[in-house]
Structures are given as structure tokens and as C-alpha cells.
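Kindly go through the entry underneath: sequence plus C-alpha cells. Please state briefly how this chain folds according to its C-alpha cells.
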Amino acid sequence: MPTLLLALAVISTGLYAGFMLIFLTGIMPALARLTDEQFVTAMRRVNEFVPRAVFLAVFAGVVVFPVLALVIPVEGASGGRRWLIVAGLACAVLNHFVTIAGNIPLNNALAASEGEAPGAVRQAFESRWNAFHLLRTLLITASFALLVTASVT
């Protein structure tokens, strides 16, 4: 069971890191080429569709599975493994903090900006959202690397 929990921590974190990376390197650069009105509309739709069951399960899993892997440790595992899991969990928690304190408030402001000038809405949103997103992508990628390392030590 402990090995399964660590594997689930690696899988959920890898899925989430991949999602963040695709947004960073593919989706946001593609959306950057849209007009202000198209960009604002597209991001509103993305923000409506992303937080659904599968995403929320993965989002929760990047914290829940490492916690469980710490609570039910593998017998005979090194103390270094435990610290790698703790560090991976810390990066995941920081990622969630950035998401909750940075990206979600911007998403909510975007949703509430119906009827406002698309250019002004985009200017208040895009660069700040992208900066927060870069930070959370780096954090969850670090979390993934730490958990992978923990799983092979």
C-alpha cells in the first residue's frame, strides 16, 4: 500500500505538471494571438470548463497522496525518501497557494468583467495570470521531480 500511495503521488503530480506545462507552452501562447475580445471570451470558457471532476481529483491528489505516503511510510525506506516526499509536498502546497491566492482571483475578476472593454479586461488579467502560472508550473514540476526521486531511492 505505501508504494502504491507514492506511485499515485507521482502519477497525479505528473499529470498536473503536464497540464500546467501545456498551458504555459501551448495554450497561453496560442491565446495570446487572439484579439482582446476573443482572448477574454476564450479564457472565460476555459475557466468554466477546467474545474471539473477529473481536474479537481488530480488537483487534490497532488496533496493527498504525498500526505498519505508520509503517514504510511514504506518499511526500510531511507530517511532521505521521507524528506524528498516532504519537499515535493511543500512544492505542491505552494503551487496550490499560488493558484488560490493568485490565479483564481484573476479568473473570478475576469468572469465578473462582463460588459467591460475587452482590451482593459485583458490588460488587467493576462500578464499577471501568466506570471502566477509560470510560478505554479515551476513549483509543481519541482514537486514531480522530487517525488520521482523519492520513488526510486
User: Anything to note?
Assistant: The mean pLDDT is 95. The helical segments are 2-32, 36-49, 53-71, 79-111, 118-152. The first helix runs from residue 2 to 32.
